[in-house]
Design a protein that fits this description.
It comes from Novipirellula galeiformis. The chain is of the alpha/beta class. The protein is built from 24 helices and 24 strands. The chain starts with 12 loop residues before the first helix and ends in a 7-residue tail after the last helix.
Length: 791
């Protein structure tokens, strides 16, 4: 006879313990001599010798890996370059340049350039020391320049001594190198002669300060400090509102160019413009030149590479949709036919985020930077070279190899190539070292200023975002349901395509497999698996009430677990104040058919890798979860006891996130309940003052590109219309304050009222923590799924 514990060895250890406890606490039908089939009708036996969650996450990772490997094919389909003339070529790539500018977040108009401001203390000025350092060939000044409202650049301006400059160059150090180190005035940088050599040849050189990878200021004394690199700290507060640390720093470089141009206009000259960078500075030089056609010559040191492993790099290099259109060779095509020098050289090494110090939270994403492999650089360069060759400007792109690809940056050959692009010849003479005239700038204080400016800029944009969303939604007609459905569909499509990322509709056979895992007096449980895409499965637990009658059709409630959970969690016995068992079990005992899906938000870094692999492909974790649910509903609708018109969704915590992101895009769901997650989502993901903000915790996969300017939770809930929607909220739930939840929900209630469906939405506040209450929500399910409540 079947033993319901026979498959426990195939479950995860935590799941097996939960199922064992469940079985120990309940009599089985086997004891009552009521045999049950080992598999559901019309399914194959499920033979899985490992936990479903591990199998699922590993499979999605394999799928994402394959998609990355074929991304070059997808990119080719998105370009139609016209090489017939330079003018036609520029027209053919114009939209790509605009999109590239958007996805790196360099979208705001810069403030008017008024010239570089020299920074000097009153003491130094009165002492006659306005210049920081000098040599016979060069003077060095500390400068500031405006970029955006409330955002400035700071750095060093190097000018030829005793003569007018004949070219302007922005020389960008790696993120961990200060401008002073980059010219040899302090320790900690390579390529210290680069800027001096450029000045020696007659260039005026601006060296900007970058946001570095230290964690000193990554936090808030009233909340917590973390081990986030400063660049990741900016990334986290930027991404949700369509901004990026990369975009901000590209804006700083472009603002510096603005100031060079202002000088030229005043002096009635036109100097050629160059940009050069090492490591992170190489990225910024490369991206700036791709966007800004004023740049005549570009040199990229230790960055150019095949980017299919972008997900292994630090998260602050993650760019939404990048690899659907822009590999490094494609970015180079935005620079063509202007001068581009790629130097294969040693990159500054990054072995991960800062180590966690006492008193700081371990919150940073993993990610490493290593020197690009020479073969990969050559291969990607070859693709870039093709575009220059097609324009008959092949000589304008050069690959310089320093040593074996691991030599120092800014070799003589590379600098010579850069200078040729600004119509200068390199000199073999070694530049003189600088003499320091006064105390160096406080690099730590400057870093704090530059960092805080960007954080505050982001907070300002977050405060503006509700009005931006309101304006964005102005064409949605709420006068009646018909008008709403007609006008809201474009917003639903936009969110799915541009924020979540849409995968093609699955076409594989469902291939359902199942096995009996629990027999209880009021319901039985089958573990189920379905195919979605190659290597991508959907799966979970199906709970069937034991009193189902032949020919009877009942409603289904899909009960979604939270972060790091499994379907077994929705069955387990509880010790809280409200439910004795998991909400899936409780609902099954009320007569609902229940399905508890396994979702791929389990496995710590393993599942978060899916997000990092998918973002450059314009996809996210929910790009897989939505098709999983669509396939699940497709299969559930075939079951003889299921009424496909009465399938509801109820999710807690990360399952609450799912309640906001899946049912609006899966029309088979008749309603959605969000428990322990509904919030002012944009504030939750960007706030630098809220205790439970995602900015301060380790869930580094959470950010969704530009969501704050498109739709927050209120707008997502409105997408459910005319289907019912409910929020379950505990007063002591730390995910957010009641005030945020109530304010966000008020927009939902107003929408349902205005459209004439006010009785289809509810919120239940209760005196409790981050948990299922199961009171108002259960009544909501009974009411809207038309199933009688227990007497």
């Amino acid at each position: 006879m079947y033993s319901p514990t026979s498959c426990l060895g195939k479950l995860s250890s935590a799941t097996a313990v939960i199922v064992s406890m469940f079985l120990a606490a309940t009599p089985t039908l086997a004891e009552n001599n009521t045999p049950l089939p080992q598999s559901l009708p019309n399914t194959q036996p499920l033979e899985l010798n490992e936990p479903l969650d591990e199998f699922m996450v590993r499979g999605i990772n394999r799928f994402a890996d394959r998609e990355l490997s074929r991304s070059s094919e997808m990119r080719e389909q998105n370009w139609q370059r016209d090489f017939s003339s330079l003018a036609n070529y520029q027209r053919s790539i114009s939209d790509h340049r605009n999109r590239f500018q958007e996805i790196i977040g360099a979208v705001e108009p810069r403030v008017d350039a008024t010239g570089f401001e020299m920074i000097v203390t009153q003491k130094d000025f009165q002492s006659g020391l306005p210049i920081l350092a000098s040599s016979a060939e060069c003077t060095v000044r500390e400068v500031r320049w405006p970029v955006l409202d409330g955002v400035t650049g700071e750095g060093l301006l190097l000018s030829p001594a005793g003569r007018e400059s004949v070219a302007s160059v922005v020389a960008i150090p790696d993120a961990d190198w200060s401008p002073e180190a980059f010219v040899g005035l302090s320790e900690g940088a390579d390529a210290v002669e680069l800027a001096l050599a450029l000045v020696q040849q007659g260039c005026e050189v601006l060296i900007p300060t970058l946001i570095n990878r230290d964690d000193e200021f990554s936090g808030n004394p009233s909340v917590a400090y973390t081990n986030l690199p400063h660049r990741e700290f900016v990334y986290r507060t930027s991404f949700e509102i369509g901004r990026h640390v990369i975009g901000y720093e590209v804006q700083k470089v472009r603002a510096a160019i603005d100031n060079f141009v202002v000088q030229d206009v005043a002096n009635q000259v036109t100097r050629p413009i160059g940009v050069v960078g090492v490591g992170e500075g190489g990225l910024l030089a490369f991206y700036t030149a791709a966007i800004d056609t004023r740049v005549d010559s570009t040199m990229v040191c230790g960055y150019f590479d095949d980017r299919e492993a972008l997900w292994r790099e630090p998260i602050y290099r993650n760019v939404w949709s990048l690899l659907t259109e822009f590999a490094d060779a494609d970015i180079a095509s935005l620079i063509a036919p202007r001068r581009l020098t790629i130097e294969a050289c040693r990159a500054p090494q990054v072995d991960g985020p800062p180590k966690v110090r006492p008193g700081r939270r371990n919150a940073a994403a993993p990610g490493r930077i290593k020197t690009p492999a020479l073969d990969a650089v050559r291969e990607e360069f070859g693709r870039a070279q093709t575009h220059y060759r097609s324009l008959k400007h092949e000589a304008q792109i050069q690959l310089v190899i320093s040593g074996d690809g691991h030599g120092p940056a800014a070799s003589d050959a590379a600098v010579e190539s850069l200078l040729s692009g600004v119509k200068l010849n390199a000199s073999p003479a070694k530049p003189e070292k600088l003499r320091q005239h006064r105390e160096l700038p406080d690099a730590s204080a400057r870093q704090a200023r530059q960092l805080n400016e960007l954080i505050e800029r982001n907070q300002h944009l977050v405060r503006l975002s509700p009005k931006i969303r309101e304006k964005h939604w102005k064409n949605a007609n709420r006068s009646n349901v018909t008008s709403w459905l007609k006008t809201a569909q474009s917003y639903r499509d936009e969110f799915y395509d541009e924020v979540i990322g849409r995968l093609p509709t699955p076409t594989m056979p469902l291939n359902p497999r199942s096995r009996l895992i629990i027999e209880e007096d009021q319901f039985t449980v089958y573990e189920v698996m379905l195919d979605v895409f190659p290597d991508v499965v959907a799966g979970g637990y199906l709970l069937l009430p034991t009193d189902l009658k032949p020919g009877e059709r009942r409603p289904v409630v899909v009960c979604q677990h939270g972060l790091e959970g499994t379907p077994a969690w929705t069955l387990e016995q509880h010790t809280d104040l409200f439910l004795k068992r998991g909400f899936a079990a409780e609902l099954a005992m009320r007569g609902f058919i229940v399905y508890s899906p396994q979702s791929p938000f389990r496995g710590h870094d393993e599942f978060r890798a899916i997000q990092l692999k998918s973002n450059p492909l314009k996809r996210s974790l929910f790009s897989y979860i939505i098709p999983q649910h669509a396939r699940t509903l497709e299969w559930l609708s075939t079951l003889p006891h299921v009424d496909p018109q009465r399938i509801g969704f109820y999710g807690i915590s990360y399952g609450g996130k799912t309640a906001m992101r899946v049912p609006p895009f899966v029309p088979g769901y008749a309603l959605s309940i969000c428990s322990a997650d509904f919030n002012d989502w944009i504030a939750k993901t960007t706030s630098n003052v809220f205790t439970s903000s995602y900015v301060f915790v380790g869930e580094y996969e959470i950010w969704e590109w530009n969501m704050g300017n498109v739709s927050s939770y209120a707008e997502l809930a409105c997408m459910m219309t005319p289907r019912p929607f409910m929020v379950e909220r505990g007063h002591r739930d730390g995910v957010g304050p009641d005030e945020w939840v109530a304010m966000e929900y008020s927009k939902v209630r107003r929408h349902y009222d205005e459209i004439g469906l006010g009785d289809l939405t509810e919120i239940e506040f209760f005196n409790g923590p981050h948990t299922i209450r199961g009171l108002g929500t259960f009544s909501f399910l009974h009411k809207h799924l038309n199933w009688p409540e227990p007497k």
